[in-house]
Amino acid sequence: MNQHFSYEVIHVCKQSGARLGVLHTPHGDIPTPIYMPVGTSACVKAMTSREMEEIGTKILLSNTYHLHLRPGEELIREAGGLHRFMDWNRPILTDSGGFQVFSLAGIRKIKEEGVTFQSHLDGSRKFISPEVSMDIQQALGSDIAMCFDVCSPYPCDYKTAKEAMDRTHRWAERCKIHHTREDQALFGIVQGAFYEDLRIESARTLAEMDFIGYGIGGLSVGEPKPVMYEMLDKIRPFMPEDKPRYLMGVGSPDCLMEGVIRGVDMFDCVLATRIARNGSVFTHGGRVVIKNAKYARDFGPMDDRCDCYACTHYSRAYVRHLFNAKEITAGRLASIHNLRFLLHMMEEIRQAIAEDRLLDYRKEFYERYDLTKNF
Question: Is residue 95 flagged as an active site residue?
């Protein structure tokens, strides 16, 4: 750790082995385990920064690829950095753009020097390398930057997975050399697809590079959940105990629960706001499609255990009406609820860890949460 960042494990749950910690950053302390809402283009969709604070958000994620294309990192630097640009005074993590480039598939070419691709906005030719990714993230001024990596698809053969992992390691070395901003932490990213030996090799290799924290990439890319859990179990013994661990792109309630039990400290996902805009909400009983006719005369809250503004002021019937009337407030209320649901769940998980009863909490969670209504 440098002078701007430190991570401490406060307590390890005697019942589960999950850990309670805090990551200290220039823009505030991050209690872990933590869920990070995603503000792709310097905004969590349908939400203001003030509302994000009100629901208890401790850290946001923004997207390097999207901000590079629009409005551009130099404009954001000119505005005083990403925090000032979006009026957010708490920590921000920026991803490297690697996953977004991976998702472009047919319109990108990966070579050792970097990735050439076409902008999804206008088709213009773009290039991102480890050095370019570092330059963009340093210009944005996020608290946590991610190394530029190569994400393998699911499924993929062993040769493809190993080549992607080896290149990820070489790119991590280049990122670390090029990254010079001391008030920004740099995280490495473990790859290796779904091969146990590759995952362990990647975890060991990156640990030797001594990053401030470690992402776990290349999971939640279409594989069955038990496969993801198996990979987390396999690499856990090889992840540094004194560094935060970040499972990238995971955000359903059951995956948050299982990830924490497997030693994960940080999570992010667009799921909460994406499904909200389409009329689905998290509840303690599982997914509810609030647009369904069965809720036309349901005057109870979306979730009677939730303390968010939407649940304490409006009914399922009202939110359903807004969706059917195509009012934009419908997606806003559902987003407020879904984000608060996950943030509150993580608050309860941290409390359960502190009280050495996380496995009991997990049992209670699954007794009421209908996985057949999951995502």
Answer: yes
User: Which of 87, 95, 122, 210 is an active site residue?
Assistant: 95
CA-based R_g, the chain, Å: 20
* 70 Cβ contact list (under 8 Å, min separation 6): 41, 121
* CB 235 within 8 Å of CB 14: no
Secondary structure tally for the chain: helices H, strands E: 15, 16
CA distances from 32 to 24, 245, 350 (A): 11, 10, 7
Q: Which of 144, 179, 165 is CA-nearest to residue 235?
A: 165
d(CA 42, CA 28): 19
pLDDT score of 185:
98
Mean residue pLDDT of the chain comes to 96
Alpha carbon 234 to its chain's center = 21
Residue pair 146/93 in contact (Cβ under 8 Å)? The answer is: yes
Q: What single-letter DSSP state applies at residue 278?
A: T
pTM of the model: 0.97
Is 303 in the active site? no
d(CA 34, CA 319): 28
Two tokens at 257?
């629960």
- Of these residues, 143, 265, 268, 303, which one is catalytic? 268
